[in-house]
Specification:
- The complex is a heterodimer of chains A (413) and B (384).
- With 413 residues, chain A is an alpha/beta fold.
- In chain A, 55% of the residues lie in helices and 8% in strands.
- In chain A, the strands form two sheets. Chain A has a four-stranded parallel sheet, with helices on both faces.
- The longest helix of chain A is centred in the middle third of the chain and has 23 residues, at 178-200.
- Chain B is built from 16 helices and eight strands.
- Classes of the chains: A alpha/beta (413), B alpha/beta (384).
- Chains A and B meet through α6, α7, α8 and α16 of A and α6, α7 and α15 of B.
- Bound molecules: iron/sulfur cluster (2 copies).
């Protein structure tokens, strides 16, 4: 099998697993999936529910990026949300999720997990879920994720995660066997190791990986796993095969098939829903290759299994400092800029691009990021796209912005 | 009745940023600490011997410089106007700032300020975003850290007795403000809704002793009404939502023949609350005050029932006919709060009109039309 075939096979398998996160599954939820747990962020501590073989559905994924399919379908739904009366300019992932609750298309769950992170939008979504009348009797657990990163912040969040475990056991009747939780956590750490090794390959020039495969790793480990706990061993296996394919590609030393790599850029953001209209064009026409983004930066913060307390505290630290979007939104601008610079250096990036309008924190830090890039002679552009609605700024317009930046900074020469 | 001179004095304080009381305070060598939201205990700053001033963008005309740091496509105009005011020198009388991480954009205020070249010392306050006991405990610890940071930054000590007396002083402010609000329960209140917001805003912009003394005197100008006063001739509206440090909505309501009889905004009714328990543990008392007893900030999860109860109570007590909800563009917290408000008021049978605005709007024409339409609906199309 060629490397390309290996990558294509991995993508097909992952796409099939990810389809289960879509709204298409909602009618089935009511019929077969009880207890039904909705969480504003299922990344909180997935190992707990996986160990209990409990499915946790993520309200954002069901609502926003869970819509896999043609962009026109996503746009049509965004319009429906506006017509419904949700006029805010929040990120469309949030607006779609708010709509799914308020329009009554979601079934009444058996439990709700609400949380303030990663952004004001998620916080607002939690308030909507909290106040929605038909769900008023649903037992709920609210997690307050601290903005601080001192040890006492992690202890505070860890204590909440411990209580979350007890809450889920009580309301769903599904007990988390401690031996099983230990096994799942060991597996989780193993998955993290594989991802860290995969990440190392991002350093290679030419870039040896299929970026979509890289992007799918977090989705599988965190999102798919909490929706389909039974897939956990398969996810480890998938990661092992992804690493193997990556290493084969690296050894071949040829980079992506049919691409002559000229520019390596850091997309310091989440990948837009319409990225298939943009990224392939960039590689094909400009030789510009995306080598890293929010969701493909992994941090070596494993679960510490040495004691019960260290276990929960490390889970808290892992959530706060190693979860994409949480790390970039919840902390200091200094950390945000340091991470950016580290990515540029580690992955030999020639330019940095970012700018989803829904990311309030990111936009508020963009001038700081720009100044830092200027100091380090790194071409930088804050695009101002909407990651879910391609009419706000079309992929063609975004492409032109990239092209102009690359041209004026001499990168296309 | 002529408008009391004291009222004019308070209105003048609300209409500008700098004011005569601050000049006097500075002349006497006092320090002024700016802050951006109610989660910062004024009590602590007062106990430190300094003057707390809640920053706002009053009088600002554009946000060109702030927009470099805070994209207008993504940031509410309140933060941009406040930031512009600080970097353009309107707040040169400040000796420092305390900024809590209330929302996404407020969280980056300090770092952007530093990058703009400002030398103003800024202390950040970490906040919980959940209204429950364990969050209150976490918040208490953050308040104690804030005290330590203030002491270190200004080389001072904040003794416990001073904290107790500062709490008593601010409790007295809240008590007087509540008494002031009572005037609006009358069928024909002796003041306008615009006066309400000015009096509340002034309370967050000048020394508390002076404010309390002026407010006490102002209240004596309005002796108790005979059996609640005459029946209201105007439709009585209540403003809910973001900011509330200007009188634009109140003036608009009055222009179309209505009356703004209660203001449940951040600078208004939300800021008054009840009383902080006086005793030894000031940080615990303040944390519980903001998170457990009066958790009305739009950023808090787990407070829906209490928020709804407070609004419903005000509707009853102030004989409110309809609600106007205002939110600022790009504020995800208040935008969601408005969706919730609309549902809750529909259920309660209270007419409710929501609108999105800019902090410093170029024009208020469309909103005036909508407020007028609300008033007309309430009067069955028969507006005076
Ligand atoms: S994509 Fe960004 S703004 Fe949208 S929900 Fe996620 S963290 Fe919030
Ligand atoms: S109006 Fe909203 S976005 Fe603006 S500062 Fe207040 S909470 Fe933050």
């Amino acid at each position: 099998m060629t490397v390309k075939e290996q990558f294509d096979g991995l993508k097909a398998e992952a796409a099939k697993a990810m389809y289960q996160l879509t709204l298409a599954e909602v009618p089935e939820l009511v019929a077969v999936r009880r207890p039904l747990v909705f969480s504003v962020d299922s990344q909180l501590f997935p190992e707990i529910s996986i160990a209990a073989n409990l499915t946790v559905d993520n309200l954002i994924l069901l609502g926003g990026i869970g819509i896999m399919g043609p962009q026109s379908q996503i746009n049509a739904k965004i319009d429906k949300v506006t017509d419904f009366g949700i006029e805010s300019r929040a990120c469309n992932a949030i607006r779609l999720a708010q709509y799914n609750i308020l329009s009554g298309i979601l079934p009444v769950p058996d439990a709700l997990v609400l949380v303030n992170s990663a952004c004001d939008g998620m916080n607002a979504l939690s308030r909507i879920a909290e106040s929605y009348k038909p769900w008023s009797k649903v037992p709920r657990f609210i997690v307050n994720v601290p903005y601080g990163t001192d040890d006492e912040d992690f202890v505070y969040l860890g204590e909440q995660l411990k209580k979350l475990n007890a809450f889920l056991e009580t309301v769903t009747g599904k007990k988390t066997d401690s031996q099983r939780l230990h096994e799942i956590s060991v597996e989780s750490n193993k998955q993290l190791q594989l991802m860290l090794e995969l990440q190392e390959l991002k350093r290679a020039r030419p870039f040896p990986l299929d970026f979509t495969v890289l992007n799918m790793t977090w989705a599988l480990k965190s999102w798919v796993a909490s929706t389909k706990p039974s897939l956990y061993p398969w996810i480890t296996d998938w990661l092992e095969r992804a690493l193997l394919a990556g290493e084969n590609a690296y050894r071949a030393g040829k980079g992506l098939e049919g691409i002559s790599e000229k520019i390596r850029f850091l997309w310091y953001d989440a990948t837009p829903a319409w990225s298939s209209e943009l990224f392939p064009r960039l590689t094909q026409e400009l030789g510009a290759v995306c080598v890293s983004n929010y969701y493909t930066n992994f941090y070596d913060i494993p679960l510490d299994l040495s004691s019960v307390d260290s276990f929960y505290t490390s889970a808290a630290k892992k959530y706060v400092l190693a979860t994409p979007m949480i790390r970039q939104s919840l902390h200091s601008a200094d950390l945000y800029c340091e991470d950016l610079l580290k990515s540029v250096r580690d992955y030999k990036c020639d330019a940095v691009l970012l700018g989803h309008v829904g990311h309030r924190t990111q936009n508020a830090m963009s001038q700081l990021a720009r100044e830092m890039c200027q100091r380090n002679n790194i071409p930088f552009e804050c695009i101002g796209q909407e990651n879910f609605d391609d009419r706000y700024m079309s992929p063609d317009a975004v492409f032109d912005k990239f092209k102009t930046l690359f041209e004026v900074t001499g990168l296309t020469k | 009745m002529d408008r009391p001179q004291i009222l004019e004095q308070l209105v003048a304080v609300a209409k500008t940023v700098d004011n005569e009381f601050i000049s006097q305070w500075k002349k006497n060598g006092g320090k002024v600490i700016g802050y951006t939201c109610l989660f910062v205990p004024e009590e602590l700053i007062i106990a430190a011997g300094m003057l707390p001033f809640r920053i706002r963008g009053t009088g600002n005309s554009d946000t060109a410089n702030a927009d470099i740091y805070f994209s207008p496509e993504s940031t509410c105009s309140f933060i941009r106007n406040c930031f512009e005011s600080v970097i353009s020198g309107k707040y040169d009388f400040l000796d420092g700032l305390v900024i809590p991480r209330t929302c996404d954009v407020a969280s980056i205020f300090a770092e952007n300020l530093r990058s703009s070249g400002s030398k103003l010392p800024v202390i950040q306050l970490m906040l919980p975003h959940v209204a429950d006991e364990s969050a209150a405990d976490y918040y208490k610890k953050q308040l104690l850290k804030l005290k330590t940071k203030l002491e270190a930054e200004y080389s001072i000590e904040i003794p416990a007795e001073r904290l107790s007396s500062a709490i008593s002083l601010c409790n007295e402010t809240r008590r007087l403000q509540q008494q002031f609000c009572e005037l609006f329960k009358r069928g024909e209140p002796p003041l306008s809704g615009a006066d309400w917001s000015a009096v509340m805003t002034a309370g967050q912009s000048m020394p508390k002793e002076k404010y309390n003394s002026l407010l006490r005197q102002l209240l004596t100008c309005y002796p108790p009404a005979v059996s609640g006063g005459a029946a209201s001739q105007s439709k009585r509206l209540m403003l809910v939502g973001a900011c509330g440090d200007d009188s634009l909505v109140a003036e608009t309501v009055e222009k179309v023949g209505g009356l703004l009889a209660y203001d449940f905004t951040c600078f208004g009714g939300i800021s008054i609350g009840g009383q902080i328990v006086e005793g030894s543990d000031w940080a615990k008392a303040f944390a519980r005050f903001r998170l457990i007893d009066y958790p009305y900030c739009a950023i808090l999860i787990g407070a829906e029932e209490k928020r709804k109860a407070a609004i419903t109570l005000a509707v009853k007590d102030y004989a409110i006919d309809g609600i106007i909800g205002q939110w600022l563009d790009c504020c995800d917290a208040t935008a969601a709060g408005m969706l919730i408000l609309q549902e809750e008021m529909k259920e309660a049978g209270v007419p409710c009109m929501l609108f999105k605005r800019e902090y410093m709007p170029d024009s208020f024409g469309q909103i005036t039309t909508r407020i007028q339409a609300l008033c007309e609906t309430l009067t069955g199309g028969d507006m005076k």
